[in-house]
Amino acid sequence: MEKHRHCLNCGISIPPEETFCSERCKDEYVKKRKKIIRSQQIIFFIVFAILAIYIGINIFK
Ligand SMILES: [Zn+2]
User: Fold this and answer.
1) Is the pLDDT of residue 61 over 90?
2) 51 CA distance to ligand 1 centroid (A)?
3) What are phi and psi of 21, to 5 degrees?
4) Which residues surround ligand 1, an ion (CB under 5 A)?
5) pLDDT of 1-60, one tens digit each?
6) What pTM was computed for the model?
7) Ligand 1 center–CA 21 separation, angstroms
8) CA 37 to ligand 1 centroid distance, Å
9) Sequence spans of domains, the chain
């Protein structure tokens, strides 16, 4: 059985020692991940802000 991996970005078959099929694909994947991390940080910040406002309102009642 032939051993191979799949490119983490596009899923194409690649040699087992590789993680991506090309540098371009690697760049794309890193950019995608950064975007996901960034949107998660924004969601976390919004939740934190709402929580802080909620707690603030309740403390000064
Ligand atoms: Zn690829």
Assistant:
1) no
2) 41
3) -75, -25
4) 7, 9-10, 21, 25
5) 678 899 999 999 999 999 999 999 999 999 999 999 999 999 999 999 999 999 999 998
6) 0.65
7) 4
8) 21
9) 5-59
